[in-house]
Each structure stands twice: as C-alpha cells, then as structure tokens.
Amino acid sequence: MDFYNVLQNTVKKYPQKDALIFGEHIDSFAQLFIKVRKLIGAFQALGMKRGEKLAICLPNCPEYIYAYLAALSLGITVVPLDASFKKEEVKNILRHAEVNYLISEKDIEVSEVKVIKDIDNLINSANAVDGQILDEKALAVLIYTSGTTGSPKAVPFTYKHLDSPVATLGYYGYDEWLERNICYVPFSHLGGLVYLLMTVYFGSTLVLGKRFIPGVFLKELEKYKITAVWLPPSILEASLNTKEINEVSLKTLKAIVYFGAPAHPRLFKEIERRFPHIYGVTGYGLTESAAPNVLFPRDMPKEKRYKKGIVGKPAPWVKVKIVDDKGDKLPCNKIGEILLKGWFVMPGYYKEPELTKEIIKDGWLYTGDLGYLDEEGYLYIAGRKKEVIIVGGLNVYATEVEFVLSEHPNIKEVAVVGIPDILRGEVVKAVVVSRDGLQTTPQEIINFCRKKLPGYKVPRVVEFRSELPKTPVGKIKKTELV
C-alpha cells in the first residue's frame, strides 16, 4: 500500500465528510489530514527517521490515530500497545522491539527511548509536511499478540500486508456497507488497525466508542447512524440480553460482522428475526495472516449461512489446505489443521526464528485451527487444535459441544475445556453463565447434551460462573477455566 498517497486521494475525494468522531470531537477528512501532516513535520523535527520505531501506548483516542497515520506516512514502524498494559509489560516490549520513541501518558523510562506526552502541542507548533513514498516491503507495524494462550509474540506487517484486509473486504463488496463504523477494539489489536485502514482506504467515518456497555452501544449505533459493526459473538450475546434491544430499530445498520470466535447460527437467526434488513457476516483469518482472508460472499444462500462452523470462502489469492497430523492433504469434509498460503502471510515472528519454523513451513502458515472444506470451497471451523479434548482416545471438538450448549434456553454464555481424568485421560467440562433470572442445574445441562451428543462428548463437569474471563477484544480466556 502506498499509504500516504491512498490517504491523500481519500481526502481529496471526501474533504468535508466526517472522518473521525470521538464524543463531541469531530474531524473532517480535510481536518484529519492537516493534523497528520503537521505531526509528520513534528516527528521530523524531533529527528525521527525512516525505519525507526514508534510505540503508542494510549487508550483509543484521536491522538492515537493522528500518531498512527503520521508514522505510517513517514516510514516509521508503529508498535501499537494497549493502555491497560502494566509498566513492566510495556518496558519488555520496548526492549524487544528496539523502540526509539514512545507516546504514552504513563511515566515509563527505558534507556534510549524518547517519551512523548503532548501530541496536541506538537501538532499546534509544527508545520505541515507531506508523507513519503515507501517500499511496500518496508516494515509498517509490529503487533504484539498472544491470542488467548501463550506468551506475547510480535507479528510484523509490511506496507504490502496493509492491503490484505481491505482487499478482501473490497473483493466481496463490503466496502459499500462501510460508510460509518464504530470501534471499541483497542488499536493495539489487528481489528483496531483494520478500522483505521477502512477509513484511509474506503473513506469510512470512524466513530470511537469510549467504553463498551451493551445497552449504550445499541443506542450509539442509532445515534451515529452506524452502517456496519464488527463484534465477537460474546459481545453480541450481551447486547441481545439488554432492554435496549427492544427500543432500537437500527435502520441504518446494514451488516454485523462476527469475528474472534465461531458464531452459532442461532445468533444469525435471532438478529435477522429482529432486524430483517441486517446481514450477518462472519469470516476467518489470523493476525499472522493479516485477516480477514475468508468471508461470507454477499450472495451466499441463507441455508448455507446457517450451517454450524461455516466462515465463508477464501479470497482468490488465498490458498487453503486441510492436512492431517502427518501434513498430508485431506479430502473435502474431513477435519484437519487449516493451512494458509499467500502474500498476506507474515514473514515470521519478529526476532523469533525457531518459533517461526514451527508455524511456517514451505510457505504454508499452520494456523493451529481445525476445520474442513466442503465441495463448494466453503471453509468450516471445528475448533483449536490445542483445545481438542481426547476422551478415552476419541477426539472431542470444544466448538461442537459449545454450539449444542448454546441452544439451551437458559444458557447465556458457555465455554468448553478438557480436564484430567484418571480413567479416560480427559473429560469434558462446561463452564456456564446462566441467562438473567433463569436457573438450571448441572444435571439438566448434562441431560440436554445427552439428547444431542454421543456419550463421550457429554460434559462430565458443569461449573456455573457469573461471567467468563475475556481478552480486551472479547475472546474467552479458556486457560483460566481449566
């Protein structure tokens, strides 16, 4: 992506259109562009050079966006960090990434890292300067990710990788629905970057949500006339359980995109029952593959969209292969590990050559996800390879059990994990959040599953909790449930 040129062309096309809304703060594309160009000038005055690294550790706010866009326009590698990170976490990342500059409200001192605190003052005191033409192979962003398991790893994005999310969205025609988006996803996450890219590439208005509260969120969809929103299924579930869901029409909303975890068909049906004009969409991809790489086609038959585990079709430039434990290709409808290949795949984890060898082999990205392809080329997700529960030598896919449990009328949220068992090696454990005001017992849940699942897949242990632990983007932390 010729980043600065793309931004400049979008500004020329939509100069007076709202680019950014944050509470009462509004920037048109022309106003946003002036601030970005002034910050480019300020960064140059500070001595920033192409190829150096700038970490940003702020809550989602306009200043985060100005700095992100200015750095990318200048050839400065952005290291976006979550404001909730503790000081020691930030320091470790700064050292590992070899960061030169840090924008943060925190008092953090690391040798050879210059800290910048007042972005507004930099903007107000600088001259506007144009961005630069950059090599598409140059390092644009380093995203630190641990998913829901393991230690943080840094995924490098070149400027070419920035094309991937918007190319997939554009190929399937979703750019027509991305007129106004609302973002609660931290900019430290790939999802946050995708929101920025949609604004830069498609001219989408970006509304920054301050704090996710399900009822307030629904009201904000109406207030800001949002046309598309990206949500983990667990967040949508929470929204469906509010009184506000009966008070909104969401008449401007065209699409809800589910990401981060498989969405049960019941969610699609419930949303489309309440709001027939809204199209439920899901897709697939990893941070390591500059997601999304797979999406529902807009002309996908409804009966197909309601199939369990289905996530859509890969874009034409995305190669997908399903393999067994030996790495041999599997035929259609056989579950195995999902492999991805193409220009969108990261070159490897930053400064982690041995870890890279484990996940990228012969150009194929071993995703760690289990799934299958059908005869029409649609991809289905069965679960995470690490989450397969082996009961007496038989494989149980956590997602399959979760889908069944999600159909229970008294269950609001559920997660399934494996726990040790002397006789069987492992057994299935279900961690359940009940719907407000509705009660059930472990035995009732077990009996419900027995009607729908083979005996070895039925949970042996049922634990009730008031809520499930989640990451900042709404993924369930299963490691805390075992």
UniProtKB/TrEMBL annotation:
Which Pfam family is one of those matched by this entry? AMP-binding
Q: Which chain regions cross the lipid bilayer?
A: 190-209
Question: Gene3D superfamilies attached here?
Answer: 3.30.300.30, N-terminal domain of ligase-like (3.40.50.12780)
Q: Which residues form the AMP-binding enzyme C-terminal domain?
A: 400-475
Q: Which InterPro entries match?
A: AMP-bd_C, AMP-bd_C_sf, AMP-binding_CS, AMP-dep_synth/lig_dom, ANL_N_sf
Keywords of this entry: Ligase, Membrane, Transmembrane, Transmembrane helix
Q: Where is the AMP-dependent synthetase/ligase domain?
A: 8-350
Tell me the GO molecular function terms: CoA-ligase activity
Q: Can you tell me which family this protein belongs to?
A: Belongs to the ATP-dependent AMP-binding enzyme family.
Q: What is this protein called?
A: Long-chain fatty acid--CoA ligase
